[in-house]
Amino acid sequence: MGMARSLSGDPVTTKSVSELAVSEILKCLPIIHEKFIRSIERSEDGIFTQLQSKAMAIIASCGPLPMHEIASRMDMSKQQLTRFIDTLVQRGMLHRFNKQRDRRTIYIEATPEGREALEEHCRRTESKHLEIVMKLPPEEQEALYRAASEFRRMLNKCWGDNESVPENTYDDTRDSAVQCG
Hints:
CATH topology: Arc Repressor Mutant, subunit A
Number of domains: 1
Structural class: mainly alpha
Distance between the termini: 55 Å
Radius of gyration: 20 Å
Order of helices and strands: HHEHHEEHH
CATH architecture: Orthogonal Bundle
Number of strands: 3
């Protein structure tokens, strides 16, 4: 009698279905990171660098934020952040301002031009990934769509209603999950 195998062909051990599911999810993460996320980081569309697109996504999605908040969300120091925020301000993508009640804190917001450039960057990124998926035969494209939709639905269910990942949380820059608030 042969050894039982999971859907991926791996030998089934005494692990529960939940343990096998977690194992399969963890196997998907490096693929998703390398094939989708890293390809964006290496994007050469000329609009934004990796860090600029990540900052733009955070700022455009969450509204005006103080520098320290952006730095925290990007896991970097304010000093590191300042250099490329300066570049985006000079290009007219971002605007700096102080609020009347707290003049010491510098806030950053996306300009209309910055939002437009981010949208263009997003369109190019989506188009690039669409080209890749369209290499699959139509029936496999359909299967991928169903699997991805079901995967997202189940992940949301795992975290419950209060902590589910909203559909648009993963900003179109596709650099990082952008959660506001």
